[in-house]
Amino acid sequence: MRFRFTKTGKVRFTSHRDVARMWERALRRSRLPVGLSQGFSPHPLLSFGLALPTGCESLGEYLDARLEETRPGEVPYESLPGVLTPLLPDGVVVQAAGAVAMAEGSLQQEVASCDWDLEVYGVDGQELQERVERVLAAPSLTIHRERKGRQTEDDIRPAILTLAVAHGDAPEQGEHRIGRLRAELATHPRGVRPSDLISAFGTDVVLARACRTHQWIERDGARFEPLSVRGLGTDPVVEHAAGRAS
Asked: Which sign does the torsion angle of CA 32, 26, 78, 234 carry?
């Protein structure tokens, strides 16, 4: 069974591991027949999607739970969002639940890219547009990241699939105007976090807010979300976006 849920507001500061514990408690209280692992310390058979960086929000996170053998119609998928949401912290809202085939790959393997809405301090308007154009025109963008206690250099340019300034009135935060961006970032072979992307804009640009809006699986020239939600402005299958940054 696959669940789609949000992570917004103050709960964005909880870690991926904390979110896993929240779900384990909620599923146990819901009495949904989630299967357990074998061994001395059985635990629920849950598989989460791509880890959301701590401090980021999301309008579409995913969780797979392996159920014990059930009869058709025994699990009321339609009512589960209403049952589980009150058992989870504020900001975690279950949007949909549905069965998926056991043969499908793991969410971490299947998701090829993610859409992000970003807000930044430091630059806005025309200057932000010029920096976006410089980023897209760069043949490579090398950033420094720490991995297993070591400083490494990574070229993140191939992972920036689309990047654009979001038009419209920019919000204000005290004396600061906030620039807004929309980006699609690849997840393989190595994912790029919003903070990695913004670091390529210069030291005077600071990430103020990041929200993951979509996660995309790509197959046979089409792409779709792991579990679509009707009425949220997304279709189950969407053609590849035209004009991606190369």
From this structure: negative
